Amino acid sequence: MYYLTNFKVNQKILNNLSNYLKMEECLVHELVLDRINLSNLNYLCCLTPDIKVKKLWLRFCQLKDKGVNYLLDILDETSGKTQLNSLYLDCNGITCEGAKKIAQILRTNRTLKSLSLARNLIKDEGAFALVSVLSKFQLNSDEIDWKSMQEQKSNRILEYLMDILAQKLKEKNSPSNESINYAGLSSIEYNRFSSNILSVIEQIFHYQQKVCMAKEGLRNLKIEGFDKKQIERINKLIEGKLRLDNRSKKFR
Predict the structure, then answer these.
(1) Integer Cα distance of 153 and 181 in angstroms
(2) Against a cut of 0.85, is the pTM above it?
(3) Of the residues 133, 164, 177, 241, which has the maximum number of CB atoms within 10 A of its CB?
(4) What are the extents of the domains in the chain?
(5) 219-233 pLDDT, tens digit each
(6) Which parts of the chain are coiled coil (predicted)?
(7) CA–CA separation, 250 vs 55, rounded Å?
């Protein structure tokens, strides 16, 4: 875990931190930037796809709804791959407007597992928008198109990798090849090469199950930060929404 809390931070410090996080030998998976005024700083440089940070603390950072707009770029899986699985946004002056934007982007995010929004300015309307993406919901046309495109891309990569693996296996088993060399690869190199390809194929299958295959949205996400009375009101709203949905299905 890397701490940079309650510290006088400027853009140069964040840029240096970004360069450090991008280093191959860097093993930082958790980043704490609590109590730093990030309202006028580009902290997204520390959260690019090639950075391994999976847990991010941004509490008391004066983000407000404007800062939420920048966070959407990180959480949006339709524009790139995000690694964040935990995000803490306590005490940032986020209102219903910001909560609705977060809820919208969570519709296609399948990586985030924990989100804390404690002690913000989110009322029932914003809380309901967030809670609504925790259960099944119908995908809109743009989301369906995006999922279809992702599935096509991953299928093309799978076909390419399978072709390479089949070709190398064919060359290995060819009688014309020497027993210790397979298409320019030693036995150890060949086994390592095959293992790497199989690992990538496994990752693609996992990605397809997570992102491409679902016909409905389904979020496995824990959202924290709402008091008991607000949760009770939200649950009643959800129950009413479910009853309306069931009625509409009957009349279709």
Answers:
(1) 33
(2) no
(3) 133
(4) 1-140, 182-227
(5) 567 888 887 787 777
(6) none
(7) 43
